[in-house]
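1st attempt posting a full record on here, be nice pls
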Amino acid sequence: MNKLLKNILQALVIAAISVVLLNLTFLFYAIFQNAISRLILGDPFWPPLPLVHILFLVVIGAISWVVFDSKLFNTFWKAAYTSVPLAVALVFIGIIFYRLSVMAYLLGALVSLGVLYYLWRAKKSWFYFYTVILVSLALGIFTLLGGEI
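the predicted structure (as tokens):
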């Protein structure tokens, strides 16, 4: 198969996997938030949402550490999974700085650029760069067009 065509197909598959993973992640977040606020504590308003966000970030961080450290997944699958922790971080930045949109865009850009710099320094595959750019642009455009989460 032509190398260019193979790369295009891989990029499309990464995008599709990322969409599925992100939908599953935010479904998991809804279940997580509901379980913590209603089932465990019996009060829909405690703990406050920032604490739930932080707890969810810790859970995603732990899952991400396992995925990235695992020998079960190759570079392709790890790169596709990269969309999850990045999107969660960017979405939570957007939620926290909802009223300060310039700050949200600035911090989101700094996080994305920081991840890209790390990937470049670590000499990671183009799959990772593609995923980071795809997620960053998709969420940025979604927000600029008036989308809300």
